[in-house]
Design goal:
The protein is an alpha/beta fold. The chain has two domains: 367 residues, TIM Barrel, CATH 3.20.20.80; 143 residues, Trefoil (Acidic Fibroblast Growth Factor, subunit A), CATH 2.80.10.50. The chain contains eleven helices and 20 strands. The strands form five sheets. The protein has an eight-stranded parallel sheet, with helices on one face. The chain has a six-stranded antiparallel sheet with strand order 6-5-2-13-10-9, with no helix packed on it. Helix 1 packs across helix 2, helix 5 packs parallel to helix 6 and helix 8 packs parallel to helix 9. The longest helix is centred in the C-terminal third of the chain and has 19 residues. The radius of gyration is 25 Å and the shape is elongated. The C terminus is likely disordered. One of its GO terms (biological process) is establishment or maintenance of cell polarity. Keywords: Glycosidase, Hydrolase. Belongs to the glycosyl hydrolase 5 (cellulase A) family.
Length: 527
């Protein structure tokens, strides 16, 4: 069984979009809602990447709308705040806060030859920057200065042109005045957002202070002394970009790689194995902030992003190949279906597997391949992975999200029956091993007591202990006890002393887990 040392930074709960800020970023545990939580910005000038806005004209009372979601003109004819009327901001590093503006179908906003507002550019490099100017008296009122230096104005026919002179009035009859609405529920809190908010130099300083204080050697000692035998450490693709000055785009946070080096040294000292998990790939494989997305877009999967990702895997494999505590490299965490197609994923997994095996000439190191989120067929990787030696399928089991059963019994029964059946469907003779790479004790039950929570943890460890590669709890340390294995252990809600300490006999893991299960976890309360 292994423990997460997570890299998340900002939101209050776990994974699948509710997790921490870089899924991505520094390789050691960070609490969701922890020290690096982004503050609520007092004005748009200090907003960050991924902020979603709608903009309403004060003259015709209609919302700016990208016709068809993008690919054509942007006009003021939207009667509701829908996807077509929602714009995503990319904050640009400049003395005056400037933004790229993106529409629902991912095009970027620019001006055509007639100075009309359009959303046709497929790359941010094809557009200029927009300045959003707030009214000092009423912060809900804005004007938008276009790349040509003129203000956007709504015309009588609803079209929008950049032909207004700056310095005008803020009256409700001025076609250059708009009301801005910020979608608070869609705020993103990841590395890109942190950096766009604080700037590169301050972000690196904050990260380095955090890396040096939140997870220490004592945490590795605690993990080892409480019967756990491995850590799963999520990292982002920019971990290998560790030289040169700090920057937000492309991301570069000096000191990042050294933190993972230190984790390996501590793991070696306390006889722990390490799984390095690529949690965020270039462009983001699922669009969540903690998977390295700038604005919620899934842009991973083309030839360029796959090649970049393979290079990252190759660099990680090369750097840590000689560390005896390296147990596995996970090629990608939670690619999202159907945005990431199965054919694309198989192509990448084949290339990533080859990259690891070329650098790591050892029979005791595994390559982990994550199932897709939202897949209609949880067994879709079974036949594919059976062709690789030392291969592992990673599945993540949460009762909190799509299931969210309201009663204790429903949650426990589902784990006993459905989860057990799902695991059995993945484990085949001569096939890949199976790893329950994420689970937790948070659920949707209201009014549950501590005994209920412990029972929920017990049944999950019992069932997931049948997995042929074990399990990892999400996460090690968190402000919410139900997401924090450290808190659960210290409060006696979860018992880990029954976990086998020796992973040198990894070929016998299935047998070890079977014996463990039959012993029914001889519970030793930890004080």
């Amino acid at each position: 069984m292994c423990m997460y040392l997570q890299s998340y930074r900002s939101r209050p709960v776990g994974v699948h979009g509710d997790g921490s800020g870089a899924g991505a970023a520094p390789p050691l545990a960070v609490p969701h809602a922890g020290a690096l939580r982004l503050p609520t910005a007092p004005s748009l000038d200090s907003e960050k990447d991924g902020t979603r806005i709608t903009v309403q004209s004060v003259t015709n009372k209609m919302y700016l709308s990208a016709a068809g979601g993008g690919g054509s003109k942007v006009v003021a004819n939207g009667s509701k705040q829908r996807n077509s009327e929602t714009f995503r901001l990319w904050k640009i590093e400049s003395p005056v806060p400037m933004f790229k503006i993106r529409v629902d179908h991912d095009q970027f906003v620019s001006l055509n030859d007639d100075e009309e507002l359009v959303a046709v550019a497929t790359s941010p490099n094809q557009t200029g920057n927009f300045q959003i100017i707030s009214n000092d008296v009423d912060k809900s009122q804005i004007q938008i200065k276009a790349p040509n230096g003129k203000l956007l104005q709504v015309q009588l026919d609803g079209s929008v042109k950049a032909n207004g002179e700056p310095g005008g009035s803020w009256s409700n009859s001025d076609p250059a005045v708009f009301i801005i609405y910020i979608n608070e529920s869609k705020r993103m809190d990841g590395d890109f957002q942190l950096c766009s908010f604080y700037g590169a130099n301050q972000t690196v300083k904050m990260l380095q202070d955090h890396w040096n204080s939140f997870i220490t050697e004592d945490d590795f000692r605690f993990i080892s002394s409480n019967g756990l035998n491995a850590v799963r450490i999520p990292v982002a693709w920019w971990i290998t970009r560790d030289s040169g000055p700090p920057s937000c785009h492309p991301p570069n946070y000096p000191g990042y790689q050294a933190v993972l080096d230190r984790a390996f040294a501590w793991a070696d000292k306390y006889n722990l194995h390490v799984i390095v998990d690529l949690h965020a790939a270039p462009g983001s494989q699922n669009g969540f902030a903690h998977r390295g997305s700038r604005d919620g877009t899934v842009a991973w999967g083309d030839a360029t992003s796959i090649a970049m990702t393979v290079q990252v895997i190759e660099a990680l494999a090369d750097r840590y190949a000689s560390w005896k505590d390296l147990l596995a490299i996970e090629l990608l965490n939670e690619p999202l279906a159907p945005k990431v197609t199965l054919d694309t994923l198989k192509k990448y997994y084949t290339a990533g597997y080859t990259a690891v095996k070329e650098k790591v000439q050892r029979s005791d190191v595994y390559v982990i391949m994550s199932n897709r989120l939202n897949t209609q067929d949880p067994t879709e990787l079974v036949e594919f992975t059976s062709t690789f030696d030392n291969c592992v399928i990673d599945v993540h089991y949460y009762n909190l999200y799509n299931l969210n059963f309201p009663s204790v019994k429903e949650n426990i029964d589902f784990v006993k029956t459905n989860r057990s059946s799902q695991l059995n469907s993945l484990m085949r003779a001569n096939g890949a091993r199976v790893f329950v790479g994420e689970w937790t004790t948070e659920w949707g039950v209201q009014g549950a007591n501590e005994e209920d929570r412990t029972s929920f943890a017990d049944v999950q460890m019992d069932v997931y202990g049948q997995a042929s590669f074990g399990w990892a709890f999400w996460s090690y340390k968190n402000n919410n006890t139900n997401w924090s294995m450290k808190d659960m252990i210290e409060k006696g809600k979860i018992y880990t002393q029954m976990v086998p300490k020796n992973l040198n006999m990894i070929e016998n893991m299935r047998k070890i887990f079977r014996v463990t299960n039959e012993s029914k976890y001889q519970k030793k309360k930890i004080h």
